[in-house]
């Protein structure tokens, strides 16, 4: 059952690469040609060549076998690029899916330690990639060697082939049963390993507190208990692995001993020629034995690891259905006006809520500035609008639809948030600019770049085809903001939230960028960094901690003490 969800995940991510997988299998079959022919050609060399007094013919058959190995080497050469074509793109799509899923989970559960859990997940995806490529590479040993050996035996002696097939089937069935036990036990090893990490990390992080509080023995006992549990599960896993030996005995040694024991009778009744007997031994002691050994050794380690890790990744991905699924079908929006109805949000259940029963009406195409003292909750409001956090109470509506019934992708298309730390990624300037609108035309991008004032930055970088290095190295914070502003400007988002997204620009550049957004069709919410931003807006929302007040600049100046103070403070700053 657990393997099934992992296997389904693997199937889902391998399906788009079935062409390269097909080519991989085809080349593997060519690679297996000499394995299939080895016993048959050895039998021919003995029977029609050496035993018949024609050594030339005997060597001829052996030379044919050598030629097949050359063909096989060519096949091997083709296998590796196909392997990379299959596994590398699969890794990328799998990684994208599980990282997106774990980030959604981190945001949903409001856990700050998201980075470490995502890092763990990416490690697991890389483990899948490595294990899968090793599995696929070595699978040909099982498939090619096992199938080729059985096929060769059928040609040599249907009787020996039948006996061998029965033994192999029983051995494989026994191994399948063993695999279930191994999977359960290995899963325990992984889970207990994670518990060791969970217990050890806080102790290591807080080692100074542990020492100053003389709590070393308690911490050691706590971590030691988890270590002991993991050691016990490792021992249980190792005990189960011992049973792989009978599998090899049953699948290979029993038919080999049977063939040798029956050989006097088979030879005397002429059921088997001397060459066929030698060919049979070649198949059983060579490819079949290595296939069986690989199955039980790699199968009981790699197959088990891949099964358990894929299962864990499948669990992560299956959690990637936040409220859309919980609340049934994803709803459509009607327009893009936003309404908050008594929205309450706090970062913990115990602390005072940052947003307390906030009401807000944001008609389509309006321009709102949000102001308030530092730490009052302006960015938190932006996060509620972008559904990066879920309100604890109250409802947020987008286009008349409850925000948590809107599909995450739909919301991302409709609403773009630019945070203070603008993000640029490794790639070309064009890719950075068109990330949210991949179908944007050159003239649309030109228009947005010029409107937001990003042209100088684009030119300095070397134009649209220039490459931005990882982490945006070499770009100033202001230049990153300009690229992010142009990226959102060219997008189809009908609501744009600028969360101090222009704080690294000078006042003139900030005014230009904000004007570009207010002329652009759609709603604009600006978390204001300067009084000038507030003055450009149609309406201003003042967050004060005890309530929220909405109005125009002059109106608020005369009636709202906090706003008047903020304006006074801003004007005092040179
Ligand atoms: N992830 C978080 N976990 C816990 N508390 C948080 C978190 N993010 C913000 N806070 C707290 O919530 C409150 C509101 O923060 P927020 O960033 O929304 O304020 P802000 O008005 O945007 O501040 P600033 O103008 O300084 O950016 C602050 O007290 C802040 O410390």
UniProtKB/TrEMBL annotation:
Assigned GO CC terms: plasma membrane
GO MF, any single term: ABC-type transporter activity
Domain ABC transporter: start-end pairs: 338-570
Domain (ABC transmembrane type-1): residue spans on this chain: 23-284
Organism from which the protein derives: Allosaccharopolyspora coralli
Residue stretches spanning the membrane: 21-46, 58-76, 139-156, 162-183, 245-267, 287-310
InterPro entries, sorted: AAA+_ATPase, ABC1_TM_dom, ABC1_TM_sf, ABC_transporter-like_ATP-bd, P-loop_NTPase, Type_1_exporter
Annotated protein name in UniProt: ATP-binding cassette domain-containing protein
Keywords noted in UniProt: ATP-binding, Membrane, Nucleotide-binding, Transmembrane, Transmembrane helix
């Amino acid at each position: 059952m657990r393997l099934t969800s992992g296997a389904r995940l693997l199937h889902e991510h391998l399906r788009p690469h079935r062409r390269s997988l097909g080519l991989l299998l085809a080349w593997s079959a060519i690679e297996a040609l000499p394995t299939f022919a080895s016993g048959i050609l050895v039998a021919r060399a003995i029977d029609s060549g050496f035993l018949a007094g024609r050594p030339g013919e005997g060597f001829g058959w052996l030379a044919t076998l050598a030629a097949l190995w050359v063909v096989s080497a060519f096949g091997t050469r083709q296998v590796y690029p196909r392997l990379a074509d299959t596994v590398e793109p699969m890794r990328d799509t799998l990684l994208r899916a599980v990282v997106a899923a774990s980030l959604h989970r981190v945001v949903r559960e409001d856990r700050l330690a998201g980075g470490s859990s995502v890092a763990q997940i990416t490690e697991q995806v890389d483990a899948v990639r490595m294990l899968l490529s090793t599995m696929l590479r070595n699978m040909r040993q099982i498939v090619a060697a096992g199938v080729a050996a059985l096929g060769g035996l059928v040609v040599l002696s249907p009787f020996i082939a039948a006996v061998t097939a029965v033994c192999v089937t029983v051995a494989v069935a026994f191994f399948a049963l063993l695999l279930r036990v191994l999977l359960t036990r290995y899963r325990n090893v992984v889970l207990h390993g994670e518990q060791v990490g969970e217990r050890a990390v806080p102790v290591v992080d807080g080692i100074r507190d542990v020492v100053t509080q003389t709590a070393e023995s308690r911490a050691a006992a706590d971590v030691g208990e988890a270590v002991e549990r993991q050691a016990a599960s490792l021992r249980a896993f190792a005990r189960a692995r011992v049973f792989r030996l009978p599998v090899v005995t049953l699948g290979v040694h029993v038919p080999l001993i049977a063939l040798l024991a029956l050989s006097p009778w088979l030879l005397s009744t002429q059921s088997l020629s001397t060459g066929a007997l030698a060919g049979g031994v070649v198949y059983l002691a060579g490819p079949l034995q290595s296939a069986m050994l690989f199955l039980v050794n790699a199968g009981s380690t790699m197959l088990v690891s891949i099964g358990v890790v894929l299962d864990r990744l499948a669990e992560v991905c299956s959690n990637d259905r936040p409220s859309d699924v919980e609340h049934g079908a994803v709803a459509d929006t009607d327009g893009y006006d936003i309404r908050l109805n008594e929205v309450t949000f706090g970062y913990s259940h115990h602390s005072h809520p940052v947003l307390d029963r906030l009401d807000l009406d944001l008609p389509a195409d309006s321009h709102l500035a949000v102001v308030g003292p530092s730490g009052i909750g302006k960015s938190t409001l932006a996060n509620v609008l972008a559904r990066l956090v879920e309100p604890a109470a109250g409802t947020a509506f987008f286009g008349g639809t409850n925000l948590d019934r809107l599909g995450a992708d739909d919301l991302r298309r409709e609403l773009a948030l630019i945070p203070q730390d603008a993000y640029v990624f490794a790639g070309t300037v064009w890719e950075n600019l068109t990330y949210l609108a991949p179908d944007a035309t050159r003239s649309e991008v030109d228009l947005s770049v010029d409107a937001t004032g990003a042209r100088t930055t684009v030119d300095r970088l070397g134009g649209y085809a220039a490459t931005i290095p990882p982490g945006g190295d070499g770009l100033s914070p202001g230049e990153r903001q300009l690229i992010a502003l142009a990226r959102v400007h060219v997008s189809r988002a009908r609501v744009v939230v600028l969360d101090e997204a222009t704080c690294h620009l000078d006042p003139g550049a900030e005014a230009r960028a904000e004007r570009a957004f207010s002329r652009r069709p759609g709603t604009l919410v600006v978390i204001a960094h300067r009084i000038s931003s507030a003055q450009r807006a149609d309406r201003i929302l003042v967050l004060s901690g005890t309530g929220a007040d909405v109005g125009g600049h002059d109106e608020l100046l005369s009636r709202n003490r906090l706003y008047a103070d903020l304006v006074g403070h801003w004007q005092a700053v040179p």
